[in-house]
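note to self: dont lose this again. the chain is below, predicted strucutre after it. 584 aa total, dont forget to put it in the shared folder this time
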Amino acid sequence: MSEKKRVIMLGNEAIARGAYEAGVKVSAAYPGTPSTEISEYLVQYKDDLYCEWSPNEKVATEVAVGASLAGARAMSCMKHVGFNVAADPAYSVSYMGVSGGLVIVVADDPGLYSSQNEQDTRMVARAAQLPVLEPSDSAEAKEFMKQAFELSERFDRPFVFRTTTRLAHSQGIVELDERREVEDKPYEKDIRRTVMMPVNAKLRHVEIEKRNLELAEAANTLPINRVEMNSAKIGVITSGIPYQYVKEVLPNASVLKLGMVNPLPKKLIEDFASKVETLYIIEELDPVIEEQVKSWGIKAAGKELFTVQGEYSANMIRRAILGEDLKIAEPAQVPVRPPILCPGCPHRSVYYVVKKLNLHVAGDIGCYTLGAVAPLSVVDTTMCMGSSISTLHGMEKAKGKEYIKNWVAAIGDSTFLHTGVNSLMNMTYNKATGTVLILDNSTTGMTGHQDHAATGKTLQGDPAYAIDIPALCRAVGVKYVTEVNAFDLERLEAVIKEEVARDEVSVIITKTPCVLLSKEKKPLYIAHEDQCKKCGMCMKPGCPAMTKRENGTICIDDTMCTGCGLCKDLCKFGAIELVKAGDR
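---
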């Protein structure tokens, strides 16, 4: 028997590999850090399976449910806030059950590296009565995915596969197996199971409670939950990435490592707790395990020692349990580097004009959220995907048409197709007033330039119909739809002035591709020191390629300049000159 190939994989790559080896046939997702790369790795297996970018997580989950009902193994992938969008089908398919195995992969973000909250997916899954698996490293990520599909079919339950930023983006050694071709389950019409109207849902609720009890009982003996018995002085119940920290800090402690975090193996936990003198429960974010264990009358220490915020670390555990602090050298003091829009970003010129006009911006989720930071500082609100348009609508209904003429909504092309279009329909339907800026940079930029329904290409690289966003806006009832180049400052300013003055809904689409999409050589601009008047106009948009010399004149960093020309347009003294494109 030949030795298995061993490779180093990111957690997200291992999740994709596990799905492939499990025989998945359909995967649907919407990009969202830290989950995005799962689909980008999975697409390399497109000869054996189908994967897509869906418009949003709700649609992605419904696609996966459809594939499961047809008998195939299927999955959907998203970040934790995307699970909120997918909650509608997730709660209902929990009642319906599965035919082919169904797994919903959800990536949490402890520490808020790229998210608007620290939501704990285990809490949502418990509310939806969905079982949850959680791996601790890349090797487990691959193997747990395979087990998730097996358990899904065995217990007729959709499974949530929880990961976190640290797991998704850390590496580990993974042993590769061959893909298992799983025969599709035959479709059997069963209206009582698959049509969720009240009379059927009542019966299915009873059924899933039975299934969950069976699963909870099985969890006591499933190898995915394991006891590592060492010294009885300290016992730790943990799961996921914190397991790694526990093993580093407390190598002699006894550990109950939970691979299934919902439902919990009550008998296994009670037995483990009875064998240790002091029991700790170590879990990131909410006390999901802790509250259940303590409700059973088991004495344990948990969140009174550990925070409910952010990521854990080995040092945190060392300090809380052992009262020790490692002598770690203080990190070098360096200037703070806040996130900024890239040099040449078309959003910068739009926000420059908006700021010049003293307008407020109801913002959204994407690169353009960075318009909230200095020196632009024009974005007033950001809540969730698609919320900019609805927020603007609510303001107008509360304060009237004149008030809203000091505001615009700003949303990207991908986010507009995600949930913004629904909000725009609401504005036209309810006779609103307000101007929506669709900042169309022809990609899903913030998560790494994924395609979407308006780019003309699928995740699998196939050409596709590209949604006509201006036509879509007109189709939902917007009479005034204007397209403008983001770098045409004069026209952009004139159009914004005209549209915000209207007593109707209007849409301005700044159709300018993300500067990072083009592989062509860019023009180069230089600033002439002897002609610079030190007025600072070219510095106002905050382009990182623009700096000041010691004497106050402007200098352009030619390693960063992308040739957008915004600085030249702002300079009234001809101090900035275009140099033809060439080798950089």
